[in-house]
Amino acid sequence: MDFIRDFAIPFPVTIVLDLLGLPVERMDEFLGWEHNLLHTSIPEDRRNAIITLKQYLLEEIEKREKNPTDDLISNALNMEAEGRKWTKEEVFGHCFNLFIGGLDTVTANLGFHFHHLATHLDDQQQLREDPAKIELAVMEFMRAYAAVTTIRICNKETKIHGVTIKPGERVAMSTPLGSNDPEAFDNPTEVRLDRRPVHLSFGHGIHRCLGAHLARRELKVAMKDMLTELPEFRLKPGFEVPYLMSNVMHIQELPLVWDA
Questions:
Q1: Is 185 in contact with 143 (CB distance < 8 Å)?
Q2: Distance between CA atoms of 81 and 143, rounded to whole angstroms?
Q3: Whose CA is closest to 37, among 232, 260, 258, 248?
Q4: I need a labelling partner for 70 at 20 to 30 A (CA). Which of 129, 175, 183, 203 fits?
Q5: Bridge partners of residue 144, in order along the sequence
Q6: For residue 131, what is the DSSP state?
Q7: Domain encompassing residue 42
């Protein structure tokens, strides 16, 4: 199987589309928008994707205002902040983040996690023999293979190691680098399934990922069920894994094989 195409994309994406009340049959179209928004180097394609997605989500929000349903878009319309209902722009921003995060980041993490299992058969066997270790293993995989670099905007002048960052300047917060900091983690390039890491892969403080609990559950369920349903799997011999390097790193194709 191609793990990315056959599982890592449809599994989390269908869950998020269902939670948002959006049509699963349009998955390929939505993924096209997401790709152009996050993974293209062509400014015009990115701009068009943002415009298209914003218009679509605003239309869906207007539909829920008239006919509320049991989904996260309708739920956002009832959210309050400082004693008032969210504005439409705030509801849109919330739904935009859920859409982008749900269609991209869990897929990226699944690719890295299962690539590790397919190339480290001793770790795979350890989790098969003791599924209770899966929860800690997921946290260690998220540290070792942190996929997301987020962009923040500086709001006050800050100096770090002799470099002055001015208000309004953009800063890349690279969790992949931070997760491999030898000052924070002993032998950080080694994956230890019992490490119990405190990592930043879900962000921190007010910037913590809105979907952290859902993402962690999806990753645990995927690992538990795949290890239960499949015999020992490994990477297709001779295959060179293609990596997509961007603010959300991906494995684009992951052929897994196993003995019948």
A1: yes
A2: 33
A3: 248
A4: 203
A5: none
A6: G
A7: 1-103
